[in-house]
Amino acid sequence: QVQVVESGGGLVQAGDSLRLSCTASGRYTMAWFRQAPGKEREFVAAIIRNGMNPRYADSVKGRFTLSRINRVNTAYLQMNNLRPEDTALYYCAASNGWASSAAAGDYAYWGRGTQVTVSS
Q1: d(CA 85, CA 93)
Q2: What's residue 3's pLDDT?
Q3: Are the beta carbons of 88 and 35 closer than 8 angstroms?
Q4: Over the stretch 29-76, which tens digit does the pLDDT of each residue have?
Q5: CB of 65 within 8 A of CB of 46?
Q6: What is d(CA 118, CA 36) in angstroms, rounded to the nearest whole number?
Q7: S-S: 109 plus which of 2, 49, 61, 102, CB 3.0-4.6 Å?
């Protein structure tokens, strides 16, 4: 059974930084999605197995950086210059696919989420 576990959320002020971690029980394409109250889940970033060319949503480009360390099957989402609109429950997802898809349906394995709250 594939396990995906997130950590690193918290309450911060606008302009602060946070780093989220996601560990999977194997090597997969990994992605982050987020869901704010009353809104649909949206794509944040994705990274393929070799760590090359991470893909980002336009809303986070230049502020968020996704990387991974395959030795420990962990992906890291470094979030800088956080904004109140980044407040959401952040989910990590894993896929057996080879592309850094932005579609939630392409990811078979999901974590339970970690809350990020950014105050103004």
Answers
A1: 21
A2: 95
A3: yes
A4: 999 999 999 999 999 999 999 999 999 999 999 999 999 999 999 999
A5: no
A6: 12
A7: 2
